[in-house]
Specification:
- A two-stranded antiparallel ribbon has the order 1-2.
- α7 crosses α8 (216-244).
- It folds into two domains: 42-146; 149-281, no CATH class.
- It has helices at 2-41, 43-64, 72-88, 91-111, 120-146, 150-175, 190-208, 216-244, 259-280, and strands at 179-181, 185-189.
- The longest helix is centred in the first third of the chain and has 40 residues, at 2-41.
- The chain has 281 residues and is mostly helical.
Length: 281
Amino acid sequence: MATSSRRRARRSRRRNSLSDLGARLWVAVPAAAYAIFIVVAGGAVFAAGVVLLGFVCLHELFRMYEALRPVKLAGFLGLAGLGAAAHFGGEHQVLLATVAFFPLLFLLAMAMPERPGVPVTDGMAITLLGTLWVGLAIAHAILLRELPHGNGIVIDILVGTFLGDTAAYLGGRAFGTRPLALRISPSKTLEGLAFGVLGATVAVWCAGLYQDWLGGWNALLLGVVVGLAAPVGDLFESRVKRDAGTKDAGTLFGAHGGALDRLDAAFFTLVAGYYVWLLML
């Protein structure tokens, strides 16, 4: 009886995993179409497209921490400034926009009416976290797209990120036994991490087979970096959500969460990928 129950439980888990995977893939179709469109278009279209995604992610973060009274106007202006600096300038202009954000944040925070029991610095802190977390990732994505073969590299990194995430999910559900970060995300396992890194590496390496400007060793290195950076981004957002006391950042993708839930890993892999590709040029 006990053996039969365990078998039924395993079959049930497999069915649930396949069902959840199917829903994940279905949700990914319009997101992939949007990503391909803006990456291929490049230029101002790409910059505007990723800044728009950044606005959605920042809105989700501010909504999670509404009680801290984030300085929303400063956050949105700061994110737009970082995106514009990357599009019209370069790394130095992005640094300048980052520095300029601090007095902007302070002045707009001081203009807000105070609320008893809610320190102004709490709102400034969550605004700073969100703007730099999301805004610098968006800026690096724009910088990366403007590098030689930037369109292909952005696609490679995104493919590695999301296929690595899928491999981590499937590997963790099938073989995961040892927790990766129990206090942050109890469902993630070391086995899932290993599958995720392997999946991302293989995905980027396979993409490099069709790109004569991305050699085999370079593709492997980029894939490993993507595979390692992705779970850090995922865990980072999980910690932010856990502290906010929420399961999902938003509802843009229905039961599969919001934009921040889907882009958390990409925010780290695009930044890491930018510097790796810069070294390879």
